[in-house]
Amino acid sequence: RRARLPGGGLIAAAAVLALIGGLWRAGRLDALSLVVEGRARSDALDGAIRDHLVLALGALVLAAGLTGGLALWRRGRGTVDLTVSGLQVVPAVALLGGLVAGLSALLTAAPALRGYGISALGIGPALIGIAAYLLLPLWRGLQAARRATGPDNIAAARALGLTSGQILTTLRLPLGTPALIGGLRVATVQALGLATLGALVGAGGLGTLVFDGMAQFAPDLILLGALPIIALSLAAEGALGRLEAALRRRWPR
């Protein structure tokens, strides 16, 4: 096996970013149409990045809460497995459209809900739709974390006189945390990508720039929205991947 330089990928990425930053400061990139477009829309770009992160992280928190709630339903694990897997079959655009139609019908039947800030368009349906797709990686990560502590280990711990709390802190969490981080890594990257579709229902985000560019046949505008999404996804994948690997080295099974 060939030896690998630890963190070689991150070093290469940092070198590329440093090179691009140097060229930017030197003014060598001023002639690029993408740079011109970025400077002309700098305020819109900053707002789109902020909205994109809020949407992705909000959906991630919502999905994590739902996953925790579903985990309490011990008798229905088979139903949960079938449901969260089946949601992946539904096209994202179709799911968002269905949520908009459903919320519209709900608001028509109960107009008073508008007073609570519920709307058929905007961040609401986008959060629900994205969170629905994040249930699968989070649920599988949770199940893998549960399986990480085998029944033999639990039996041995109880034989040694450990309490349930001690078993949780000394066995379940150390052995299960890497699997949880693995599920979180997949869900985070998925959330950053799916948040692009939030623009279709008026939730904003970088998808607004992407779809505006597609409507205007403007490749520069498409790239202006797509490149930050790629960068955010790679950063999340790299950071959480390294954390997962570090935890697996610290707490090997």
CATH top level label: Mainly Alpha
Domains, number: 1
Basic shape: flat
Radius of gyration: 22 Å
Helix fraction by DSSP (H/I, runs of at least 4): over 70%
Structural class from helices and strands?
A: mainly alpha
Mean pLDDT: 84
Tally of contiguous helical segments: 10
User: What about the largest sheet?
Assistant: none
In the CATH hierarchy, what is the architecture at level 2?
A: Orthogonal Bundle
Distance between the termini: 24 Å
Assembly state: single chain
The helix/strand order is HHHHHHHHHH
CATH superfamily: MetI-like
Pfam family, one: BPD_transp_1
Subcellular location: Cell membrane
Family: Belongs to the binding-protein-dependent transport system permease family.
Main location: membrane
Descriptive overview:
- The protein is mostly helical and 253 residues long.
- It has one domain: MetI-like fold, CATH 1.10.3720.
- 76% of the residues lie in helices and 0% in strands.
- Helix 4 (77-87) crosses helix 6 (123-148), helix 5 packs across helix 6 (123-148) and helix 6 (123-148) packs antiparallel against helix 8 (164-194).
- It is flat, with a radius of gyration of 22 Å.
Q: What would you say about this model in short?
A:
By secondary structure, this protein is an all-alpha fold.
Question: Which helices and strands occur, and which strands form pairs?
Answer:
Layout: H1 8-25, H2 33-40, H3 42-71, H4 77-87, H5 92-109, H6 123-148, H7 151-159, H8 164-194, H9 207-215, H10 219-250
Helix pairs in contact: 2-10, 3-6, 3-8, 4-6, 5-6, 6-8, 8-10, 9-10
Write out key terms for the chains shown.
MetI-like fold; flat; 76% helix; 0% strand; mainly alpha; 253 residues
